[in-house]
Input
Amino acid sequence: MSGTLRAASIVAGAGTYGLGEMSGLSELELLAGTTQAALDDAGLAISDVDAVFCTSMQLNMGSLSLAEYLGIKPKFSDSTVIGGSSNLSQVLIATMALQAGICDVALIAYASNQRSAAGRLVSSSRPDPYEAPYRPRQPITSYALAAARHMHEYGTTREQLAEIAVAARQWAQLNPEAFCREPTSLEEVLAARLISDPFTVRDCCLVTDGGGAVVLTRPERAPDLPKAPVYVLGVAMAHWHRHIANMPDLTVSAATESGARAFEMAGLDIADVDIVELYDAFTITTLMFLEDLGFCAKGEGGAFVEGGAIAPGGKVAVNTNGGGLSCCHPGMYGIFPFIEAVRQLRDECGERQIDDAEVALVHGNGGVFSSQVTTILGGQNTT
Output
């Protein structure tokens, strides 16, 4: 199976809309704006779309609502919700649908007005009955628990986690779309308000508005598109638990499985990767995914990120848009690292552009280290 989906789909267009704070716009209006941005990028019209994939925190039938709003009558639709990795799981579903001939042009879209509508991090999850008596503040408490365990088991330090936040901000300073671009330092991250031990507010993702969308089609359409195609070389998903109380090992995620299978499908390995875009809801997620995906051994993530290793000019280009920690995080973040990877592979990123980038790894995370989806994207020279 691993070879059958390799390069079966291409990214024809990608776009964002309303990143930051967009008071007065509904979720559907943000979805429409980001859809138009992605279609404009692809040189296509709404009438070309015959498959709609939409995940929403407010609309329980997101694809139906978006298709209705835009006047699309799709042949295929999907509203999968597995947390922040949902849109990346839809890349897999859309690729299968395109390969099977079920559809020709697939729209994958997400948007939220979480910042302007609610002004805070919102969780719609029901508490696990075994966790509820401890009154956790989810999802922060669960990630803080994983961070504390990693620190206890491997000697990871607060300073090492803070390095991740500082690196994200340094990338954001090179990105005009990023919501937080002011300088920060290790000292500022460590001295920030404590939210859930060991996390300060600077270890936690932003709460923003915004939307992102991508358009997928089959490779044979590439010559008719205005921009160079980006190929979906590998994509795989895995999940082992829903609630943190049922996570088999607080320091190991199912990214170990999704990453291995995505690389197998792509026929590539870690050494081939030029850009790494990881779901960074908290500083610990970046660290653990670097370990679980194979960039360093388990327990060595703290040492791996020290000394600006994942900042601009470091040994590995990680979260080049500024990530969820400094660029944007409108509830679910998975579509945004995917869009950044596409732009990097097209050489569209200005000051933060990684020279001669050909292969990008994008990793999505949902729930509390729950659902994991790894995608490998490649430029024109990778097929």
About this structure: The domain at 137-204+234-382 is CATH 3.40.47.10 (Peroxisomal Thiolase; Chain A, domain 1).
